[in-house]
Amino acid sequence: MAADRDGARGRARSGPALPAAALPAGRHPLSSGYLAPQDQPHRLVSQALARASRRPAALGRVDPTGVPELRTWFATQADAQPDDVLVCAGTQAALATIFTSLCRPGDAVAMESPTYVGALAAAHAAGLRVVPVHRGADGAPDPHDLDRALQSSGARVLYAQPHGANPTGTSWPARTHQELVAVARRHGCFVVEDDWAHDFVLAGTPRPLAADDPGGTVLHLRSLTKSTVPALRVAAVVGRGPVMARLAAGRTAADLYVSGVLQHAALDVVTGPGWRRHVRTARARLVDRRDALAAAVVAHLGADALTHVPVQGLHLWVRLPDGTDDTALAARADAAGVEVSAGSPWWVSEPGGPHLRVSYAAAEPAQAARGIEVLAALLREAPTGW
Ligand SMILES: Cc1ncc(COP(=O)(O)O)c(C=O)c1O
Questions:
Q1: What is the rounded average pLDDT of the residues 192-205?
Q2: Euclidean distance between CA atoms 271 and 171, whole angstroms
Q3: Which residue has the least CA distance to atom 7 on ligand 1?
Q4: What's the 72 CA to ligand 1 centre distance in angstroms?
Q5: pTM
Q6: Distances from the Cα of 16 to the Cαs of 81, 160, 254, 377, in angstroms?
Q7: What CATH architecture is 45-271?
Q8: I need a labelling partner for 141 at 20 to 30 A (CA). Which of 21, 63, 66, 88 fits?
Q9: Is the dihedral of CA 155, 208, 115, 192 positive or negative?
Q10: Which helix (H) or strand (E) holds 285?
Q11: What's the whole-number mean pLDDT along residues 37-49?
Q12: CATH architecture observed for domain 2-40+276-380
C-alpha cells in the first residue's frame, strides 16, 4: 500500500501535489472500452475456441462473406437475410472496408461530432474529409443540419452511433430515426449505423435504424468483440442491395476472409446456453457501475459536469470547467493512477468545450468513486490556464 502511494506520488511529481487523502491505492481503470476481465466470458470463449479448433471446416478456407451459419445468426438478429450479411474482423475492419469501397480519397464523409476516434482514424486513413454534423440536445442531429451538411459536402456516407454513442453516451430518440434516414436517402447517402453497444442496453429496447429500412440506406454494424472478449474479432455489416457485393469485394481484397476458427467459436458462444446469462449479468453489473460513477461525478465535480446519464454503452461524457485543458488533465490523472480519456481528440472539428470520457465498463464502484475524487482534487489545484 505504502509503495503504491509513493509510486503514485512519484509519477505525479510534475503535476500539482495531491492531498494525501486523495492519493489512489492503485490504478483506476476509467478509460476502458471493454468489460473488466472478470466480467468477460472467458470460459465460454476458451471452450468454444477449443471446440472450433477441432472442426476441419473451421481450419480450412471459408466463404469470403462469412461462415453461412454465422451469417444466418447475424441476419436473424437484424431481421435480415443471410445474403445481407458480410462478416468482418471487427467493426474497425468493417469501417475501413466501407470507407475504401464506397468513397474515393478526397470525398467527404459526415459524422456526428464528437464521435468515435477509431472512425475518424479509419476515415483519415482512407483519405476522406470528415464533415461534422452537430448533435442536438436530444442526442440526435437536427434533420435540417444534416440536410445542409450533406447538401454542401456531397457526402455519400454518414457514420452515426444512434445507440449509446461513444463518447457522449447519448442515443437518438426513436421518433427521429425515420426522418434522419429519409434525409440521408434523399441525398443518396448511406447511413452507417454503428451498433457497437448492442449488448450493453441498460434500459429500454432500442430499435435499430436498419429494422425500418427496406430501401437499403442503412448499413448496420454489429460487433461481438465488446460483449465477448477483445480477441474474438468478429463483426458483421448487415445491409441490403448491390452495395453488399461492393463491400464483399473490398473486404476480400483487404484480407480474403475472417478466420474460420474465430467465426465458428463466435457462433458457438452466442448460440450456447451460457450466452444470455452472460449478457444479463454484464448488463446488471454495468448498471451498478454506471450509477456509482455518475453519483461520484455529481458529488465531486458538480451536477453541471454530467448532463446525460446513458441508457446504453460504457461511457460518461463529463463536462469540465471552461478553460480546462482536458489533455493536460488526463495526463496528470494518468500520472496519479487514474485512467481517463481526454475529450479533445473525439471532436470532428472545434471542441465544444473541455470534456473527459470517463468509462464505467471496468471500474468497481469503489475504484470509480476514488478515481473521481482524485480528478476533483487535480481540478481544484489546476493552475489558471489549464
Ligand atoms: C463506437 C465504436 N465503434 C467501433 C469500435 C470497434 O469495435 P471492434 O472491436 O468491433 O473493431 C469501438 C471500440 O471501442 C467503438 O467504441
A1: 97
A2: 28
A3: 91
A4: 22
A5: 0.92
A6: 58, 39, 48, 9
A7: 3-Layer(aba) Sandwich (3.40)
A8: 88
A9: negative
A10: helix 275-301
A11: 97
A12: Alpha-Beta Complex (3.90)
